[in-house]
Amino acid sequence: MSSYPPAKRALDLAISLVLLVLLSPVFVFLVVAMVVDMIRCPRDRGPFLYRETRISRGRPFELLKFRTLRRDVLRGMDPSSHARMLEADPANLTWAGRRLLKPWYLDELPQLWNILRGDMSLVGPRPWPPPMVEGQVAKGLTYRNELVAGWTGPVQVRKGLAEPSDYTALDLAYVDLCRSSTPLRVVVADIGILWRTLKAIARGEGLEF
User: Fold this and answer.
1) Would you put residue 110 in left (φ > 0), alpha (ψ -120 to 50) or beta?
2) What's the pTM value of the predicted model, to 2 decimals?
3) Do residues 27 and 117 make contact, with C-beta atoms less than 8 angstroms apart?
4) Is the distance from CB of 68 to CB of 87 less than 8 angstroms?
5) 82, 32, 78: which is closest to 55 by C-alpha?
6) Residue 79, Cβ neighbours under 10 Å: how many?
7) CB-CB neighbours of 27 under 10 Å
8) C-alpha separations of 126 from 22, 76, 84, 108, 112 in Å
9) What is the helix (H) or strand (E) element at residue 190, kind and residue range?
10) Which residues contact 159 (CB under 8 A, 6 or more apart)?
């Protein structure tokens, strides 16, 4: 399924708009916390947002995240790499990134704007950088060029419960669901994944993944 079913798009628009309104105080709090962090710790200073090229349905777009990495770490990052590889080391994170943004995945909130723009869906395979997608395609796995990337997905709700070697299988099972099921069944599955994502966020385990 390379299309973007209207029912799935309607769910994306409805939920992302509601979340942007409901979470607007959280956005304000996080910006204030980042300002305080940058005032008290010069090495944490830098832009509020981080932009990184990712692939969704075969097209590059700018993924938005609250910046969690220190500016010097970003400057030294290999262009062929991506921020997530560096975020695994807490020493690379700002105070706000280590204490607030990463544990509860709050750095991902700006991607609600990506969803509104149609760059992403609420649920789907997570968007990967172009070099990683190219490597996956070379192995015969083309689904990241066919489906809209997701804010969350089957892998994200199974981290810590499944082996890393199973992550591709989880993505492929979702891809098969999208290709073989009715739009209504896909929407119901998406709602289930979103609910499980909320429970994963509540555990505050973002720094562990």
Assistant:
1) alpha
2) 0.89
3) no
4) yes
5) 82
6) 8
7) 15
8) 24, 25, 12, 12, 14
9) helix 183-202
10) 200, 209
- Tokens, residue 96: 């706000």
User: For residue 8, which amino acid is it?
Assistant: K
What are the pLDDT digits (tens) for 112-143? 999 999 999 999 999 999 999 999 999 999 99
Q: Which residue in this structure is represented by tokens 């993924």?
A: 63
Which tokens in the block code for residue 22?
Answer: 């409901």
Residue 1 pLDDT grade (very low, low, confident, very high; cuts 50, 70, 90): very low
- In angstroms, the CA 58 to CA 197 distance is 25
Residue type at 10 in one-letter notation: A
> What is d(CA 45, CA 193) in angstroms, rounded to the nearest whole number?
35
> Could you say which DSSP state residue 69 is in?
B
